[in-house]
TrEMBL record:
It comes from the Eukaryota. The lineage of its organism: Eukaryota, Metazoa, Spiralia, Gnathifera, Rotifera. SUPFAM superfamilies: GST C-terminal domain-like, Thioredoxin-like. This is GST N-terminal domain-containing protein. It comes from Adineta ricciae. Residues 29-103 form the GST N-terminal domain. Signal peptide: none annotated. Residues 189-275 form the Glutathione S-transferase UstS-like C-terminal domain.
Amino acid sequence: MSATSIPSSPIVFYDIAMRPPMEKNCCAPNPWKTRLALNFKGLPYSTSWVPLPDIAKVRSSLKVPPCRKFADGTDFFTLPIIKDPATDSLVGDSFDIAVYLQKTYPNSGAGDLFPPQTIDYIFTHDHAPLVPLSECRESEFPEYAKFNLNVDAAFTAHAQLATHGFPFDPATAEITKAEFVRRAGVTSWEDFALVDEKREKMKDSCRNMLGGLAKLFLRDTSGPFLLGTRASYADFIVGAWLRMMHVTLPEGEWEEVRNWYGGLFGRLHDALEVYAEVK
């Protein structure tokens, strides 16, 4: 198979199942990065929806080792994974998947996922995140790898705004909530609730965090993307988190986020709609 040919058999994309309908409710950020990249590349694929309690079993059955660990050293089994029959490849990290798609299908779809650019964004935080972040490993695309790590850290630090709005599948909701409680070391699901002054304070922090990102997007005002009219994987990194916020935040709060910084993030979210088909 040449590097530029489109695979004849669809790639299998493993994503986290939420409450049906999936087209409306899928909201896990890292799988969203992969979906946007697959659609950008115009590659045939089908989604395999995995219930949250089954992720470890599915990942193990595919013999894809976990790529992250919790602070206590235990493995963190998560998605996405892609299985590409054309090359007999299994890739189990959203950033690694994007690199794989670019190297294997460099000229397909809308072109280069990683056009050269400087993405100087650093997020510093005081507390270790509840969910382990992708490591900033040695990469052919170090600017993008670093940006991915920092954006994930920035949004994860504010994820409590979204926790109670997750559209869990009723069939597995209680098991899933119990696992979140266990990971966090809290006593009940209600401990995640963020209301009144605490919520407003977290929203203010989130707005300030997005202000740092807005500066990057305002360097080229010819379009909604970091490179103006040209989308890249860096836009998908931010856009994937916006997809989560769109689904999980109360509608009024999502409208607030859309309108911060002159509507910049609303325009980015809407412009990525062309790559957001759920298959």
